[in-house]
Specification:
Elements (H helix, E strand, L loop, with lengths): L8 E2 L1 E4 L1 H4 L10 H13 L4 E5 L4 H12 L6 E7 L5 H11 L3 E4 L11 H16 L5 E5 L7 H13 L5 E5 L6 H14 L4 E5 L6 H10 L4 E4 L13 H10 L2 E2 L7 H12 L16 E2 L24 E2 L3
Parallel strand pairs: 1-10, 2-3, 2-9, 3-4, 4-5, 5-6, 6-7, 7-8, 8-9, 11-12
Helix pairs in contact: 2-10, 3-4, 5-6, 7-8, 8-9
Length: 317
Amino acid sequence: MFGKINFIKKTTIKDSTLREGMDVPDVNFSSEQKLKIARLLDQARVPEIEVVAPGKVFEDLEFVKRLKEDKLQIRTSGLVYVYNPQYQVEIKEASRYLNRFDLLMPVSPKRRPYDKNVKIRNLLGALSFSLNCQPEVGVGFPHSTQTEIEFLLEISGESVESGARRITIYDTNGNSDPFEIYALVKRLKDDLEVPLFFHGHNDLGLAAANSLAAAFAGADGLDVTVNGLGDRAGNAPLEQVVLSLHLKGFETAVTLKDLRRLSETVEEESGVKISKLAPVVGEHIFVHKSPGHLECPELFEAFDPEMIGFGRRRNAK
């Protein structure tokens, strides 16, 4: 029999489907499509959606204005690049309509601004400006796994001392493994006294595993997207991460039986098909060709299909 789950820690899920999804070739959600997906995320009790991209702040805020009319429980967030010449205007507008936002500063020496001291100085200046407009401001570090740990610790620590309410680290090229992510998150959690989030990309197929490793290391929250929709190979899939966390004793508050509907809706609205072999929501996940499997199905299944409203069946073909 499938065992009872004893929850050990609460992990916040932040869904980025409406931002990362727009980076997928041929995906261009209309406002109505975004609303449909946002309503389902709210219904599934996902606590936060990231809806504003750093390169499209004013454009995406138009949708946020429309979303506010729905009076959903879900909180909205977005991203602002610090080195954008108009970042102060973007921050003022973001503060008017978003529940919170993160300032982005790439920590790789190969991205502007190139000098480490300039990165820190510019970020702290933007953070000070932001906190005069909105108390819920965090900072995010693209390329966190592509820079020296000492610098990541330094810029994170300076940000927290200056008032940042959240730190998000990005495995931007998806090149890390769970052991590396566990060690990195553990090191940061030992030094920082604010919530720490992890944002994983799936270029090596490890985004879900890396997200779980981050949670075990103490990450307070995880960025995900429905069906893993996102740039290049995509992001950590919401359905895989949420169910894996549940099975490992982490409480997310996300309603498991809403996962299939979410997945199917995003498949329909995005036009990006789900593999029949996809973990958690794939069509074949509970199909058994071998009659021997049905004698003791829990030996062949990672979780009870009733958790997500699935049924199992035999396929004799």
